[in-house]
Design a protein that fits this description.
about 260 residues, 10 helices, binds adenosine-5'-diphosphate, binds magnesium ion, six-stranded mixed beta sheet, alpha/beta, Rossmann fold, 2 domains, 10 strands
Amino acid sequence: MAEPQTLPLLEVRGLRKHFGGVKAVDGCDFSVAHGELIGLIGPNGAGKSTVIELLSGLVKPDAGTIVFDGHEIQGLAPHKIFASGLARCFQLAKEWPLLSVLENLLIAIPPDGKDTILHAFTSPRQSRAAEKAARERALEVAEQYRLYPLRNDYAYTLSGGQKRLLEFARIALARPKLALLDEPMAGVNPVLQTQIEAGIRNLLAGGTTVLLVEHNLGFVERLCDRVIVMVAGRVAAVGSMAELRENTIVQDAYLGGTSVA
Ligand code: ADP
Ligand code: MG
């Protein structure tokens, strides 16, 4: 008997986006399996960030299909895509500067459908119970992301790196099916990089699939079993970092003939 076929969580086919004469994304195909942490690398200008914008709906594709969790989502509004379970990191997480860290976490928790204002009037007791549960969960995640001691501070007082941790915590609370991370380690110090790395693993452990764009190949190698290489708007190769290092197409296109470090 044949093995049951598991559909990928995300399937991108023939994705294209040109800006005037710039072929930012030019016929891009790849897929992401449920539960994996997959890397997306490539030289500057390869089209990685544009792919992320296309997936999250902030930029509309010229052509191509994006099937997410069994549904075509290309061209949908960003909030619809987000509601379907696809979160772009740093999209949700413009933190609210004049709310506390804890309040920022509480508003990231999606309503469970029952927890409406009407419900608060008609069943105040259940509503208070839901509020208590949300608070406990927010504090638990604050602890996980080392934000617990800062929970009562205004978000605007956080350092850049702490804001990034707050964003990870908010994504963890929103529990998306897929998180798109565009260079989350960029511009943060080594201690925070370690915490962000732990944050990425936490997201994964919580059941979120992760697509990680990152130019530090050391991180990519440590975190990702499978890596997509984009060159000039297309996927040039997919494989483990070890396999990609041996791939001459990748060597030539990605690093002009030198080996992938
Ligand atoms: P990467 O993230 O891999 O460095 P990008 O997706 O940011 O690459 O960019 C791919 C190409 O598309 C680059 O040449 C970039 O200048 C161009 N580009 C990206 N966004 C725009 C835009 N909004 N308008 C015009 N050109 C853009
Ligand atoms: Mg980029």
